[in-house]
Every structure is written in structure tokens, then in C-alpha cells.
Amino acid sequence: MIIAVDGPAASGKGTIAKALARHYHLPHLDTGLLYRAVAATVRRMELDPEKEADAVAACDFDELTLADPGLRDDDVGQLASVVSAHPLVRAALLQRQKRFAHQEGGAVLDGRDIGTVIAPDALAKLFVRATPTIRAQRRHAELKNRGSTVSYDQVLADIRARDERDSSRSAAPLVPAADAALLDTSFLSIEASIAKAIALVEARRPRG
Ligand SMILES: Nc1ncnc2c1ncn2[C@@H]1O[C@H](COP(=O)(O)OP(=O)(O)O)[C@@H](O)[C@H]1O
Ligand SMILES: Nc1ccn([C@@H]2O[C@H](COP(=O)(O)OP(=O)(O)O)[C@@H](O)[C@H]2O)c(=O)n1
Questions:
Q1: pLDDT surpasses 90 at 208
Q2: Which of 74, 92, 86 has the alpha carbon at shortest distance from 34?
Q3: Mean pLDDT of 176-195
Q4: Is 81 in the pocket of ligand 2 (CB under 6 A)?
Q5: How far is CA 139 from the centre of its chain?
Q6: What does R_g of the chain's alpha carbons equal in angstroms?
Q7: What's the order of all strands across the beta sheet hosting 107-111?
Q8: Which mutation among 6, 138, 156, 187 tests ligand 1's pocket best, with the greatest number of atoms within 8 A of CB?
Q9: CATH class in words for 2-202
Q10: DSSP secondary-structure letter at 180?
Q11: Average model confidence (pLDDT) for the chain?
Q12: Which residues line ligand 1 (CB under 6 A)?
């Protein structure tokens, strides 16, 4: 069974995807980390994120980069949203994600284009949403916990800028797949969001 979990920044898609993976005993891939690794590599190599050829060169990143906790930083997320708009960057990361999704036994993937591009054949597709201010509160609390001094206003501005860039790009924009179930977590606890996600997946599973 393939489960696709998409949605904007800090909507709770990663939390839900991990919980679904645990519940159904499936492997999980956070696809955002791949774009964040490209972004961090662009920065380390002092390349230009706006230049497609520069960003493509960074797609051949060192696998150890994926374990760097710095990838979760707010500025890396912003830079990831710049490099991810290049069609050739998306193309460079496509097969790796498709292979993961279509491995034997299935998988759970979260990102922006899982239900639309990576696994349009997924059995269950969730599109996770929450209001920008609630997402900013959650992400701000998360970053503060990790020792970051970034302000709430900065996090909110970054989330709005990223929403705009991710939704308006021509290559794999952030849009719900036509057959995705919408899950608004704005006023749901983590536990309630997970329970709702499991119920939505169950509704897509063949009976018997
Ligand atoms: N329903 C929820 N209520 C409160 N906090 C949440 C909820 N879902 C996720 N969070 C918290 O919000 C932050 C962002 O969640 P995460 O799952 O990483 O979002 P995303 O993967 O969409 O960026 C994390 O600190 C997470 O613990
Ligand atoms: N499948 C994906 C996943 C991430 N991304 C890009 O990578 C950036 C970082 O993604 P992420 O999922 O790690 O970010 P959060 O939603 O966790 O803040 C996003 O803003 C997108 O621009 C993408 O284009 N496609």
C-alpha cells in the first residue's frame, strides 16, 4: 500500500506520515529532506540557488548530508523552496522517490507532489492543511526548542513566502491531487490528527 501525504510547511504532514508508517509497518520517506539537502549543498559549495545548473550540480549531494540536523533550519527551508522550483532539480530527484514509493510492500511518503507526481497511483492520498498562523506558531515553537532565536514574525513571513513560491511554480506545484482527502489539523491535537488520518486511509482500503 502506498500512502501519499502532501501539504504546506508545518501543516503536520511529517508527524502524520511517520505515525501512519508506524501504524501500517511501512517504510517512510520525508521527501522535503532531499530538497533541503540540495539547498544545504548549494550553500556549502557557494553556488547560486537561482541558477538551475548550479542547483542541479548540488543534487549529487553526499548522503551523510541527510543526517545533518541543520537541514531543519528555517533558512534551509527557504533555500529548498528556491532550488525545488527548478524542473531539472525535480527531475534529478524523481527516480529515487518513485523507487522508494513503489518498493515491494508499499511505503509512506510526505512532501508536496507525492499524490500528483511521485505516486499518482497511491491507494490513499492525504492533503494536510492548517492556517498559516497556526503553522507558524508550531514551527516557531519547534525551532525555539532546538535553540533557534528566529522570531515568530520571521517564521510566519517565511511560511507565507514558501506557500506562495511552492504553489505558483510551474513544475509540480503544491496542489491537492483530485482524489486526495483533505485533512485540516488547525484545531486538532497531534493524536486527533493521527486518528483522523488513519480513518481516512482505512476508508480507502479495499474491504474484506
Ligand atoms: N495537530 C498538531 N497540533 C499541534 N502541533 C502539531 C500538530 N501536528 C504537528 N505539530 C507540531 O508542529 C510542528 C511541525 O509539524 P511537522 O509534522 O514537522 O510538519 P510538516 O512535516 O508539515 O512540516 C512539529 O513540531 C510538530 O510536533
Ligand atoms: N515533495 C517535495 C518536498 C519538498 N519540496 C520543497 O522543499 C521545501 C522544504 O520541504 P519540507 O517538506 O522539508 O518543509 P516543511 O514542510 O517540513 O517545512 C518545500 O518548501 C518545497 O519547496 C518540494 O518541492 N517537493
A1: no
A2: 92
A3: 98
A4: yes
A5: 14
A6: 16
A7: 28-30, 107-111, 2-6, 124-129, 181-184
A8: 138
A9: alpha beta
A10: P
A11: 96
A12: 7, 9-15, 138-139, 142, 185, 188-190, 193
